[in-house]
Specification:
Elements: E1 4-10, H1 31-36, H2 44-49, E2 69-73, H3 82-89, H4 107-117, E3 121-126, H5 129-143, E4 146-150, E5 155-161, H6 167-180, E6 189-196, E7 202-203, E8 208-211, H7 219-225, E9 229-233, H8 236-239, E10 247-249, H9 254-266, E11 271-277, H10 279-285, H11 290-309, E12 315-320, E13 339-344, E14 352-356, H12 361-369, H13 382-385
Parallel strand pairs: 1-11, 1-12, 2-14, 3-4, 5-6, 9-10, 9-11
Antiparallel strand pairs: 2-13, 4-5, 6-7, 6-8, 12-13
């Protein structure tokens, strides 16, 4: 039988309790607790896989004996953003955080950027993605200037109305920014944020991330070099700048990602399918919408039995997250939290893996499953689950 691993990232689905949360200003944050507190919340599939049995998760939803292996996972890297989180999942420990710009981008970046793009710049400060187009969208429509903003993460974001700046031009402008943002200014991602409609405007699904190239090899490269497929779904291909990615399938959101996952279940391949479900973070975490977040979790939970029913004997399902984004916490940024790990397969032992010291244990275990030599960050727990 073909060996396959389906690694699903519930973007921002933290479980609180990070030992260094206070250093990031996030003490007390807990995405899962905020979600569980919503009226009517229920997640029987995630419960059966062991979510509420994870060390440190206190919940009345804990029932029965889990059907899979489960763990609390700590982030070792210095960061709480998408890039750092996904890189660590894939085997890279980042001891130096990526640059951030709480006061906006300096002239050494904006002047050449504006000159090369042929457009002016609006905003240039940390901002919510939905609020920035509401507050600067009208001026952008009148002037054609690009809305440039950032967040607490290492990002250079460019928002533009599709009727003013065609999407391909916006992508070109992002590539210009990516070329300029090097060295000490090498941000994790340059993000195209197209929007449309009338004020207060609506962001479209044609977002595109232009990521920094990973600074070291990842499990994706190890697998691809060994001849295995690396099917990347959602923004995964972008996060790794295409390095080690044999196929990248973009999606418009969680529902589209679920559709693609079912298609991949039917596909004949040997290797890794690495999936990101982004809506938890972008639509609900950053917007501090706990009710919407809870509903999105329940929707994925209701879909999972369909996916699990289609798994083959040697398939392994892993569900984790890249950071937290507590919808009830102050502000609108990510939160430093531990994340869950749920592992399921017909041959997987239902064991408590305790607390793993780094996300990279996931990468090490995947490499071990495929028999690929691994010397990156992390240790395999394969012998504990098979």
């Amino acid at each position: 039988m073909n060996k396959r691993v389906f690694l699903m990232v519930m973007d921002s689905f933290g479980i609180g309790g990070a030992r260094d949360a206070a250093a990031f200003g996030d003490e007390g944050s807990n995405t899962l607790s905020s979600v569980m507190a919503e009226d009517g919340f229920s997640a029987p599939t995630l419960a059966s896989l062991g979510l509420f049995h994870i060390d440190g998760v206190l919940s009345s939803f804990r029932t029965g004996t889990p059907t899979g292996a489960y763990a609390r996972v700590c982030e070792m890297s210095q960061g709480k953003d998408t890039t750092i989180g996904h890189w660590e999942i894939a085997g890279i420990r980042s001891d130096v955080p990526l640059p951030t710009y709480p006061d906006g981008f300096p002239e050494r970046i904006l002047r050449p950027f504006s000159e090369k793009c042929g457009r002016g710049v609006l905003c240039n400060k940390p901002y919510s993605g939905t609020e920035v187009i509401r507050d600067f969208g009208r001026e952008h429509m009148q002037t054609g200037d690009l809305i440039v903003y950032t967040s607490a993460d290492s990002v250079f974001q460019i928002a533009a109305h599709e009727d003013v700046v065609p999407v391909e031009e916006l992508y070109r402008d992002c590539r210009i920014a990516r070329e300029l943002l090097v060295g000490e200014d090498c941000v994790g991602r340059v993000i195209a944020r197209p929007f449309t409609g009338e004020w207060p405007f609506v962001r479209t699904s044609r977002r595109h991330d232009f990521s920094a190239v990973p600074p070291a090899k990842t499990v994706l490269e190890l697998l691809a070099d060994a001849g295995y497929a690396t099917e990347c779904v959602g923004k995964i291909g972008d996060v790794f700048a295409g390095v080690g990615v044999t196929e990248s399938i973009r999606t418009s959101g969680n529902d589209d990602g679920m559709r693609v996952c079912l298609e991949l279940l039917e596909k004949d391949f040997t290797g890794l399918s690495f999936i990101n479900f982004v809506d938890f973070d972008t639509l609900y975490g950053h917007r501090r919408d706990a009710k919407g977040y809870a509903e999105a979790v329940m929707r994925l939970d209701a879909w999972l039995p369909r996916f699990i029913a289609g798994m083959k004997p040697d398939d392994i399902l892993m569900i984790t997250a890249d950071h937290g984004c507590d919808p009830n916490f102050a502000g609108s940024d990510h939160t430093r939290e531990n994340v869950p790990l749920l592992v399921y397969g017909r041959k997987i032992k239902p064991v408590n893996l305790g607390t793993l010291s780094t996300y990279s244990d996931i990468a090490a275990t995947i490499a071990a499953y495929f028999g690929v030599p691994y010397s990156l960050n992390g240790k395999s727990f394969l012998n504990r689950i098979l």
